[in-house]
Amino acid sequence: LSEGPLQGRRILVTSGPTHEPIDPVRYIANRSSGAQGSAIAEALVKLGADVVFVTGPADAARPEGVTLVEVETAQEMLRAVQGSLPVEAAVFCAAVADWRVSSASDSKIKKTKGGLPVMAFAENPDILATVSQMPEGRPALVVGFAAETDDVIENATAKRIRKGCDWIVANDVSPATGIMGGTENAVTLISDAGSEAWERMDKVAVAEKLAERVAEALEA
Ligand code: C5P
C-alpha cells in the first residue's frame, strides 16, 4: 500500500466539458478535452489521496484509482459535487457551460422550410463559486482554473476574488498556444500571496506540481 503525503485525504476534482442539450440528439459543448483534470486526479492519487472525480463527457482517459462520477450537464455536475462533500480540498478543472438551453425540446427539432429555431438560454450554476462560498463545510482548500485568451493574470486575479476560491490556476487558451486539446500547459498559480508563473511543461508535470502544492497546503 502506497503511503503518500495525501494519505487519507478526500479530494474532489471536476473535469471535462459539460454538454447542454438542445433536443434529444443535439447539444452545446466546448473544446475541453479533460486531459488536465485527469492528470491532476492521477497525481493526487499517486500522493495517496482518496479522489472523487466528477467528469463531464470528456475525451481524456478516466484516471485510475478514483471514485468516478460521470455527468453530462452543469446542473448534474453541481448535484454530483454537492453529493461528494465534505472533502478537504477541491480542484475545479471542468469547463462548465455558462449557459444551458432554457427549454430543451423533448423531441427532435424538425427542419421546417424557411423557419429557423430560436433558442433561449438560462445561466448555469457556478459550481466553483457555490462551493467556495459555502457558509458551512467549505473545503479547506478550493482551487479554480481560469482559461483566458486576453489579460490572463488580470482577469484570473479578479476571478479568484469574485469566486471566493483560494487559488486560481490561470492559463492562456488562445488557439496559437495549442494548449486546449494539446499535451502541454503554461500556467500561473494565483493566490492571496500573489502570482507565480510556471514554465511551459507537460500537463502531467503541471498536475504533479499542483498536487505537491495541495499536499503542502493541507499539511500547513
Ligand atoms: O468563470 P469561468 O468559467 O472562467 O471560471 C472558471 C473556473 O470556474 C473553473 O475552475 C471552472 O471549473 C469553474 N466553473 C464552475 N462552474 C461554472 C463555471 C465555471 O465550477 N458554471
Automatic annotation (TrEMBL):
GO biological process: coenzyme A biosynthetic process; pantothenate catabolic process
Cofactor: FMN; Mg(2+)
Assigned keywords, A-Z: Decarboxylase, Flavoprotein, FMN, Ligase, Lyase, Magnesium, Metal-binding, Multifunctional enzyme
UniProt domain DNA/pantothenate metabolism flavoprotein C-terminal: residue ranges: 6-216
Binding site for CTP: D98, K108, P125, D126, I127, L128, F145, K159, K163
Note on cofactor: Binds 1 FMN per subunit.
Catalysed reaction equations from the record: (R)-4'-phosphopantothenate + L-cysteine + CTP = N-[(R)-4-phosphopantothenoyl]-L-cysteine + CMP + diphosphate + H(+); N-[(R)-4-phosphopantothenoyl]-L-cysteine + H(+) = (R)-4'-phosphopantetheine + CO2
Superkingdom of the organism of origin: Bacteria
GO cellular component: phosphopantothenoylcysteine decarboxylase complex
Residue numbers spanned by region Phosphopantothenate--cysteine ligase: 11-220
GO MF terms held by the record: FMN binding; metal ion binding; phosphopantothenate--cysteine ligase activity; phosphopantothenoylcysteine decarboxylase activity
Metabolic or biological pathway: Cofactor biosynthesis; coenzyme A biosynthesis; CoA from (R)-pantothenate: step 3/5; Cofactor biosynthesis; coenzyme A biosynthesis; CoA from (R)-pantothenate: step 2/5
EC numbers, comma separated: 4.1.1.36, 6.3.2.5
Entry's family note: In the N-terminal section; belongs to the HFCD (homo-oligomeric flavin containing Cys decarboxylase) superfamily.
Function: Catalyzes two steps in the biosynthesis of coenzyme A. In the first step cysteine is conjugated to 4'-phosphopantothenate to form 4-phosphopantothenoylcysteine, in the latter compound is decarboxylated to form 4'-phosphopantotheine. Catalyzes two sequential steps in the biosynthesis of coenzyme A. In the first step cysteine is conjugated to 4'-phosphopantothenate to form 4-phosphopantothenoylcysteine. In the second step the latter compound is decarboxylated to form 4'-phosphopantotheine.
Protein name: Coenzyme A biosynthesis bifunctional protein CoaBC
Name of the gene: coaBC
